[in-house]
């Protein structure tokens, strides 16, 4: 088959590789019909994650049709169309049993395109298929469903649920790229008082308004802390969601929240940040970090089906699977192309 | 009257000052019968809190008898013996109404010996007396009750409740001074699997065992991360409680917890710490900071009355109120004197 | 002054009574500028609450201007326009300190028009004025604010928050009178998957659709259990909210919820209901009851100001205060008149 | 093999039956080395559960050694000694994924000795073996481990966790049979202020004191409501746990709790109870029901290993497996024999 293979920092190729085969009793082989690119794939290609081996097939999001299943697979069958989640759940370890498969210690967690071959390929081996895939219902399109592989549950779980967004809250979202837009989408489900999007790029702030932000601020030009103070009567935000992954944006979040507020970090960080405990120790702040568990997938799917989440609008560009290198180029130049999510279909 | 007056960094005196008087309708004047010294008082004297004005009477913990009340005070009367909590609650602001008077925006919060004159005096003016004092019941001694003014609710609320200690948890407490011992005391209420006390001083670790730690480690000599890994089968602690207030101990806490774990900061910090988001972003960590609200006072009092909390053992040294300078000396040299809490009585 | 006085079951009169006066240090006297009638007032008039003394002035909802305050009142002053909440909070008792003034043991809770004279009068004495009134902001109308005195927080706190409505949930609301409509309004804040309104009257179901129900069922004609099963794929509702106050509707709620579901009772009941533990014991059901605490008032006010709650549409009829007997007649014949809330203004 | 077979109400026999065999890919066959009898088995024998077919092997608690596994089983192997939990978890359905396998819709839940053949036999087929068994650690005895099959997690999850027992709480446990004793054991983990055991039999109340109750009351002779009022200063219990399964004891629980209190039903009920909504509607009561999920098994095991739960004392009588009919007789006459749990070993 053909697949997008990582060959070390900066190097990738769409090339012929052996077809995947069932290795474990709980595996399935899935023919990939749609996949997408995540900001994390760009991090890997930059060499930020040296644990990714050269030769690895990238990608951790897909829709496809089951071709074959191992003898331990009981709930999906060849012919089923399924969503392949970015999180694999062994379902046996303590983390999985407690609803946190993102931290699976039984061989799951985030493994696709990272520890094992991924989904940017014609076929993919899916471990723990019973608990890591979702059958695709009739009432939603592939565009919408594909957004459930990673971006929608990540913004919702790691941003909105960890941040404990509640009706009436003032929610600051720092970073209006795909993940920030997902956090805005998720926050709206709780009827916040105001969602304030903060970014350095006007184009992304424009997108934020379209995705449901009430207010925007370009912090290349303006002081975000002063702005949030001004629109909250000096109180500060109830929740600040970090959706960039650099120290400055995290530190900004801790400056934006009111006493008793929550800072939910979603960003993938490569460097430590400074936590200003000399002022924060007394302020009843909660800071959370997290990898998605994808346990909200069923809920979000229901809201897509009832048209209460508009998932399709994340998809700004479409390509054939074999044109994935072009897709990477478009996604990698998002500031120019306006790409949010690019979708490749077989 | 006589009172302990702060005269700028390093300077204090037990001297004659005017008696306090009712200023606001919700004030009470309380004759101080017992008070104590907090580590925070030492911070103030070191000059760490420049917002404390020279001339301020120190102290934020007391037991005494009400002498006089303003016309708005309805639930305590002259002659009542009361605990004066370190937290004053206006009861009117949003924070107070939501159960967070530590963040009171109506003139309360932590104000004694900080923003207004404190309790290390013969008399003290107590604002918002109805909601900032507790009548002393028959079934407990003054020693025990005085520990409810600050140290017990602080360890319990900011350490144990924020850290969400649960039965069976592995709880690491970094710092075995008075606040760490209070956190250990509070943690035991939830039947943790193991409480691991970590400190640089063997004498404090010995005290930790007496207060209920199961295991101790001197991190001047041993590697705390390796130790916690070894006693948890490589998993890490469920909860780490910071009870020192320096960057190193906070950073240690973030290294001790397992994925999904909680870091509860109690320490009063004067400097920023480093938050290693490059490794923590993916680990589902929750970090909390906080000032006590003292909302657990009634619960803790009940547990003292039923002898399920041994509060008296915190009091290691006793003095007459007029010997407070000696008491400060003994408390300030805790490493030598073994002082945990010193109690001064009128 | 003139006031609506209860003279025993079935008897009421708009008559001259003495003006109220400050009795306690925390009292305020408020000139009533707008008030309304609650279903509970009709219960009292039917004689369902024999604890209400003859001679009592009815009513527990008002907007007005402060005329005079006792010496213990610090946060409202003569001339302030305020919302008078149906819940009075002493702010001193354990229930108030824990955020449950509805259960106040210090003389508050629901007392207006019940234990003390109420708001359907030209003037009203308001105990605990600091913690039982809210200053009226510029950005909302009296119609909207008045709905915060009781109906909006009741539907939200006792229905939606107790029922733990979450995004994607199937929420059944049994009873589409004013309180059911308030529960629907509150449930929408959490983006439920579907809100199903169930009532015996088509007119009320029509109103339910206008207030945001997705589906309706007249259970005079159709089987509600079968319907909810059919629209949930046999699963049942996640949450059922009882908004009537009779045994049959409560029992229906317990039949509608899925295993693990929540039944939130708002209705005021005069008779016991049957709890079918022979089938429910195994189903992980949570049943809650409750009186409003009004702790959500500030949040709901913020959402009214941002136009995310349309509170004004509850007000279907307007009267002068002196025409209150006519207003009672219109409100009492809601099935004919279509009255949801009637508003009387001075 | 030999097994205890149900032959309709009142009829059971220890008789030869065919050996069980692997049916599904996720099955294991376990040789039973220890089993016990549950009060539920007596209910079945009385005919209270007509859905149990004649010919069914009874029992849902066991320790044993794995003999054979299906091809989908990956985490247990022949030779492993395991605890067989009363709850089978498919790990695939929404309930299992959310941590509620007691409500499993994928073929699990409570099935042993009910829907499929059970554990009172020489061998048992265990569905979903990966997620329904626990490897037995070195640090605990079989007596202790066997109590984790049902009784300990049931008392803890359905009584203590559902009842949200907190430090300092007044906890009333109605019924001091095995399940009530388990609830008392679990409640102690949270350092309640007082545990009050209420039963009709003095012998059971004596056992309750040994298991950690602070106070007892025989409600055949005394008024439980008056007693709880008297020991709580008129406030009522914070939590009442129903551990009998008859209407009177449930109704008593709802009378014992204070406003804001929780009633946690554990009892298996055969008849409806009366819920006095005419008084409870206003009191902020939470009532929960539930089947155990056994998700606390790992936590409870840790506490057994650290000797913080004394599980062995539940076992009052021991028998050889083939003497199970005698064991049933002794367990069935618990009032005379003092049996709490009887243990049969192969």
Question: Would you kindly provide a brief summary of this structure?
Answer:
Chain A is α/β, with parallel strands linked by helices. Chain A contains 13 helices and 18 strands. In chain A, helix 5 (about 150-160) crosses helix 6.
What does this structure look like?
The structure is a homotetramer of 346-residue chains. Chain A has 346 residues and is of the alpha/beta class. The first copy, chain A, folds into two domains: 2-150 and 294-345, Medium-chain alcohol dehydrogenases, catalytic domain (Quinone Oxidoreductase, Chain A, domain 1), CATH 3.90.180; 154-288, Rossmann fold. Chain A has 13 helices and 18 strands. Chain A has helices spanning 39-46, 94-97, 129-132, 142-146, 151-161, 178-188, 202-210, 224-231, 247-256, 277-280, 297-305, 324-332, 334-337; strands spanning 2-6, 12-16, 28-36, 62-69, 81-84, 87-88, 109-110, 123-126, 133-135, 170-174, 194-199, 215-218, 237-242, 257-265, 273-275, 286-288, 315-320, 341-345. In chain A, the strands form four sheets. In chain A, strands 3, 4, 5, 8, 9, 17 and 18 form a seven-stranded mixed beta sheet that branches. Chain A has a six-stranded parallel beta sheet with strand order 12-11-10-13-14-16, with helices on both faces. The longest helix of chain A is centred in the middle third of the chain and has 11 residues, at 151-161. Chain A is globular. The model of chain A has no long low-confidence stretch (mean pLDDT 97). At the A-B interface, strand 14, strand 15, helix 10 and strand 16 of A face strand 14, strand 15, helix 10 and strand 16 of B.
């Amino acid at each position: 088959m053909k697949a997008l293979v990582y060959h070390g920092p900066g190097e990738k190729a769409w090339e012929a590789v052996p077809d995947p085969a069932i290795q474990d009793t709980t595996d399935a082989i899935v023919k990939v019909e749609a996949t997408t690119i995540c900001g994390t794939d760009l991090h890997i290609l930059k060499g930020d994650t040296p644990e990714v081996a050269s030769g690895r097939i990238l990608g951790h999001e897909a829709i496809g049709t089951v071709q074959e299943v191992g003898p331990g697979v009981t709930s999906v069958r060849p012919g089923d169309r399924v969503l392949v989640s970015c999180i694999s759940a062994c379902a046996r370890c303590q983390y999985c049993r407690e609803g946190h498969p993102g931290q699976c210690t039984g061989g799951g967690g985030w493994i696709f395109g990272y520890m094992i071959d991924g989904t940017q390929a014609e076929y993919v081996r899916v471990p723990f298929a019973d608990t890591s895939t979702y059958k695709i219902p009739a009432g939603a399109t592939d565009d919408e469903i594909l957004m459930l592989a990673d971006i929608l549950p990540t913004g919702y779980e790691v941003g909105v649920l960890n941040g404990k967004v509640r009706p009436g809250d003032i929610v600051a979202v720092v970073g209006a790229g795909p993940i920030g837009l997902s956090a805005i989408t998720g926050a709206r489900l709780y009827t916040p008082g105001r969602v304030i999007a903060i970014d350095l790029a006007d184009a992304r702030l424009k997108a934020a308004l379209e995705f449901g932000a009430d207010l925007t601020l370009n912090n290349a030009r303006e002081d975000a802390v002063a702005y949030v103070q001004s629109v909250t009567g000096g109180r500060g935000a109830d929740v600040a969601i970090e959706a960039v992954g650099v120290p400055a944006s995290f530190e900004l979040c801790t400056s934006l929240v009111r006493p008793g507020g929550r800072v939910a970090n979603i960003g993938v960080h490569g460097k430590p940040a400074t936590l200003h405990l000399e002022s924060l120790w007394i302020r009843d702040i909660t800071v959370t970090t997290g990898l998605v568990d994808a346990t909200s997938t069923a809920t979000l799917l229901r809201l897509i089906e009832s048209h209460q989440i508009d998932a399709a609008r994340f998809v700004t560009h479409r390509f054939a699977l074999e044109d994935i290198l072009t897709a990477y180029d478009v996604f990698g130049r998002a500031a120019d192309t306006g790409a949010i999510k690019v979708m490749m279909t077989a």
